[in-house]
Amino acid sequence: MLNRDRDIVTPFLHPGEQLLAAASTSLAPGIPYPPAGLLPPRQPSELEQKLGKPFNVLRRAYAAVNPVSAAVGAVEDRMMDAVPDSVWHGEGMAGGWHSEAGLFVRRMRDDSASSVSTFGVTDRRYLVVVDRSKLWQLKEQYALHWEAPRHAVALHRNPTGILQRGRIDLWFADRSWAGVTTPLPSTADEVAAAAAGPYR
Question: Does residue 198 have a pLDDT over 60?
Answer without folding.
Answer: yes
